[in-house]
Amino acid sequence: MLILGLLLLAAVGAFTGLVIADNLSGGPEYTVSVLGQDIGTMNTLAVFCSGLALALIFCAALSAVASTAAHRRRKRPRTHATHPAGPGR
Question: How many Å apart are CA 46 and CA 49, to the nearest integer?
């Protein structure tokens, strides 16, 4: 789960960075392109909703990474103290 979360974090960050870098010019209709390929034409509401979706995916991935890290910290081997007289006494 940790690797999946880290992959999602990296993918969302890279995609968002590429979309912002390739689409600095704007108007009432935005033609979204990534690496020279046009993905589609969106209005302001569509761009806002896609930003919300990317933020939701980012938060889910961050939550997966955090929960995996917390689970790994809690999962420590237990040491059992032995009684000096031996078992059964």
Answer: 5
Mind spelling out the 3-state secondary structure of the chain? CHHHHHHHHHHHHHHHHHHHHHCCCCCCEEEEEECCEEEEEEEHHHHHHHHHHHHHHHHHHHHHHHHHHHHHHHCCCCCCCCCCCCCCC
Lowest mean pLDDT among 12-26, 52-66, 72-86: 72-86
75, β-bridge pairs: none
Q: Write phi, then psi, for 29 (nearest 5 degrees).
A: -120, 130
Q: How far is CA 38 from CA 23, 31, 34, 35, 47, in A?
A: 10, 7, 7, 9, 15
Q: Which pair of tokens denotes residue 24?
A: 């600095």
